[in-house]
Amino acid sequence: MRTRYAPSPTGEPHLGNIRTALYDYLLARRYGGQFILRIEDTDQQRYVEGGVEALFSALRWLGLDWDEGPDLDGPRGEHGPYIQSERLELYRTYADRLIAEDHAYYCYCSPERLDEMRKAQQARKEPPRYDGRCRNLTPEERDKSEASGVTPVVRFKTPLTGDTVAYDVLRGAVSFQNATLDDFVIMKSDGFPTYHLASVIDDHLMEISHVIRGDEWLPSAPKHFLIYQAFGWDPPLFAHASRILGPDKTKLSKRHGAHSVLEYREQGYLPDALVNFLALLGWGLDDHTEIMSREMLIENFDVDRLLPNPAMFNAEKLLWMNGMYIRQMPVEELAAAVRPWLEDAVGRVDEGLLLQIIPIVQERIRLLPDIVEIADFFFNDGP
Ligand code: GLU
Q: Which of 92, 185, 368, 382 is buried most, with the most CB atoms less than 10 Å from its CB?
């Protein structure tokens, strides 16, 4: 069992994204396998400064430790590098192989031509797709295009007819008509691979056996299966987890009280509470168990109980759960957790006094900083 979390460093990780990291982590831990962290930074335009550090912090805060990843050496780094921008040579070699075996081709079409093509298709109310102009260039035409100085992209030669079947643990065989799939780009003109190519090559070379990812990637799955076929590789087992929606059934956003993972830390949520909450957003032990420790999650998690329908985010429930976790905390631990908030507000706090106060106020704390208002009375001597 080898699973992976393969985020793109495009900002602070949000709940949906980190939930798949949690699922991949739980699956690896359940079966004594490895959980691998890979940074997918091939889209240079979406790259955000500090994005990788934010990912590390979020995973560390939640205690989702990885067995292989960019910061690890020796046997824990043997499938590396784990940052895609450091693997460009490798992708190039594999793209060359696809070209040599007639599964891919150079495309010299200019952005202007592609733009015009797309507009014409729109006007005809056709779905946007590459029209295949460079698919069958004669050697002379190729030489002419080469001589023009255009840096080509590499496109995958998608079969023109028939279907591609992608397998998903939750949905079984999902069939896609090849005619709708397009000759998608696998290498860009900047020398970077696209997500599709890089993800397939890396999952294969890193020997990933199971991929749990968000269902927004389901439409990409047939492209991945086509690439696997072209290389003659076995794909991993995919499970596309259903999405998380707001209570009004629209895409989850700040409006619904959803924040980036690190914001929850700043607001005084406990990592164990957030882990518990996220695990149950799209997975369940049964129809009633709510409070589950990390150990219990690891013991019980499996892909067969991932829920097929979208999960509904409920900010109140997370707050309630956090309160439950706070109530279960040993006094010393809770004292240590609330101390920074308290000291920020009232200055240095005597340990003995704090340990006396905690049992009195513990029931009422839902977020760590609640301590300030609740216990203020004990630390201020009055006017
Ligand atoms: N880099 C993709 C993301 O940002 C990974 C998708 C996948 O897991 O294949 O979510």
A: 368
Atom 10 (ligand 1) nearest CA: 7
Put residue 282 in one of left, alpha, beta given phi > 0 → left and psi -120 to 50 → alpha.
left
Q: Which residues are catalytic?
A: 254
Q: Cβ < 6 Å from ligand 1: which residues?
A: 6-8, 40, 199, 213, 217
- Using CA atoms, how far residue 260 sits from 43, 57, 369, in Å, is 21, 12, 18
Instruction: Answer left, alpha or beta for residue 53, where phi above 0 means left and psi between -120 and 50 means alpha.
Output: alpha
Model pTM? 0.94
Determine the Cα–Cα distance for residues 285 and 279; give it in Å rounded to an integer. 10
H or E segment to which residue 56 belongs = helix 51-62
Q: What is the pLDDT of residues 272-314, one digit of tens each?
A: 999 999 999 999 999 899 999 999 999 999 999 999 899 999 9
